[in-house]
Design goal:
about 525 residues; alpha/beta; seven-stranded mixed beta sheet; elongated
């Protein structure tokens, strides 16, 4: 192993051999602050690099290792200028870094440490607000910070950076709907993608294969998690950033938007000592929030709660959370078997994807464990059929499953521009002929304003469908009843469907019929 001193000697000998220009920073006098600010402080510290002079279209940078190609590429990505690198001994660079940035000794958790040095579960933390003292006065860094800040202020769940043939399109997903917020010249694409890769600890030089990374953003005193995915396309890399802002999502059962009787059914099931609760719906229907709210409800110190997730979206104090890693053999089924040897009281399996996982989860719910999980199905009855189609024994389904919750997210009418409207006669008749009853022809709608960006909606809420596994339904499932027969039975039992629950929310004026029809079209 080469010691730091030996490494310095090696670099210096290479400098002399290759004729790399050298500079003594102490001899150049004061450095213009505008020159210093061309390179962010975190990168200057990480790569021990100090810019000291700008001449027309080039910048001169002193660095301890002028042969570090990764450092060179990352530093070039921060400026449109040509870079001339110079060599300076590490001791001189360190002295100047202390002087320029008034920094304390570097700690082990340096914000932009190499990805390989990060402990498992950790990620880079980056300041994107004005609290960085103005040290982000670099076009690309400033542009990325602006995009992130705007997305968080707009309550976006995802940011899409898309390279097109002649331009760069930036889109936000707000309240479940994707909309374009700005465009930029195609020439800005490479710099923006490189900056996003840097803060996400991705390989800036790799553009041919997809990459996944993560970061933490410090925004005005609060931390926001960022998951980043890149995808090579014919016009350049597409980047999608998922924003996970815990403060935007209450993890309290009382805040899920359940009607009083449904909330009582839900909490009653959560108080059961064993059994299975399944939450179903398509991607983006709020299943994760419902599951985490359930975990928060049952999270008391005399219980051992273990989750198996892919990915772990929010960290919950007092809950043992496990990240699935299929690439090393830690699948849902393998992880679930390991969890059962950890003396759990409550288990949460992020998703049931195969027969093995389903059977293990269901059998564990029969042996004294309360189990939560999810399935991608359109409604609660389809969940039963999906389990049967997967090969699960009907008796096992009826014995283990206590409650199936189907849900969707609908946009909430903007409070600032909400106004009373009359329901169209044709639509009223259409709903009536479908067996859905509205108590009034008067409802509300947002006309569009500055607060909701002209959409008429701001925020989202969930609509629910509860299927309680009672004695009659259990008997029908075991007796091999058809879907039509089970549906007729649930109608006879007055089970409220997603549409029915949605129309209840329409009647109290918090969402619109258009929204309910939009999200429930696949549920029947």
């Amino acid at each position: 192993m080469v010691s730091p001193d030996q490494n310095s000697i090696t670099v210096q000998s290479l400098v002399e051999k290759e004729g790399v220009p050298q500079i003594d920073l102490n001899e150049i006098g004061d450095i213009d602050p505008e020159v210093i600010d061309v390179i962010p402080e975190d990168l200057a510290v990480k790569y021990k690099a100090i810019p000291f002079r700008i001449e027309q279209d080039s910048i001169h940078i002193s660095i301890t290792n002028p042969f570090d190609l990764r450092a060179q590429e990352i530093l070039r990505a921060q400026t449109a200028l040509q870079i001339q690198f110079y060599y300076s001994p590490e001791a001189h660079i360190e002295e100047w870094l202390d002087k320029l940035f008034l920094r304390d000794d570097l700690s082990e958790d340096n914000e932009l440490s190499e990805a390989g040095d990060l402990k498992d579960g950790e990620s880079t933390t980056v300041n994107i607000d004005s609290s960085d003292g103005g040290k982000t006065d670099i076009p690309t860094v400033r542009e990325v910070n602006s995009i992130l800040l705007n997305a968080i202020q707009e309550r976006a769940s995802d940011i899409h950076i898309e390279a097109e043939e002649r331009r760069l399109a930036i889109r936000f997903r707000v309240d479940g709907v994707l909309r374009e917020v700005k465009t930029a010249p195609k020439s800005e694409h490479a710099g923006i993608v490189s900056r996003i890769k840097i803060i996400s600890d991705l390989d800036i030089a790799e553009r041919r294969v997809p990459q996944d990374g993560r970061s933490k953003l410090n925004v005005f005193g609060r931390t926001v998690d960022l998951r980043v995915s890149t995808l090579p396309t014919i016009h350049g890399e597409k980047v999608v950033m998922r924003i996970l802002d815990k403060e935007m999502h209450s993890l309290n059962v009382a805040d899920l938007g359940l009607e009083p009787e449904l909330q009582e059914d839900f909490t009653t099931s959560l108080k059961e000592p064993h059994g299975m609760i399944l939450v179903t719906g398509p991607t983006g229907s709020g299943k994760t929030t419902t599951l985490y709210s359930a975990l928060s409800f049952v999270n008391i110190r005399d219980r051992n709660i273990i989750t198996l997730e892919d990915p772990v979206e929010y960290q919950l104090r007092g809950v043992n959370q496990v990240q699935v890693r299929p690439e090393i053999g830690l699948s849902f089924s393998v992880g679930l078997r390991a969890i059962l040897r950890q003396d759990p009281d409550i288990i949460m399996v992020g998703e049931i994807r195969d027969l093995d996982t389903a059977e293990i989860a269901m059998r564990s719910s029969l042996t004294g464990h309360l189990v939560f999980s999810t399935l991608h199905t359109n409604n609660s009855l389809a969940t039963v059929m999906r389990l049967i189609d997967m090969g699960i024994d009907r008796y096992l389904i009826t014995a283990s499953v206590h409650l199936i919750v189907a849900q969707r997210l609908v946009r909430r009418i903007c409070f600032h521009c909400s106004e009373q409207v009359e329901i169209d006669d044709a639509l009223f008749e259409q709903l009536s002929s479908g067996g859905h009853t509205l108590k009034t022809r008067t409802t509300r709608k947002g006309r569009g304003c500055l607060h909701c960006s002209g959409t008429g909606y701001k925020g989202r809420l969930a609509i629910f469908e509860f299927l309680k596994m009672g004695a009659e339904l259990r008997s029908m499932i075991i007796d091999n009843a058809s879907m039509e027969e089970i549906t007729q039975k649930t109608q006879a039992l007055n089970m409220e469907t997603l549409m029915d629950n949605g129309l209840r929310k329409v009647q109290v004026g918090v969402t619109t019929i258009d929204e309910i029809l939009r999200v429930t079209s696949d549920a029947f």
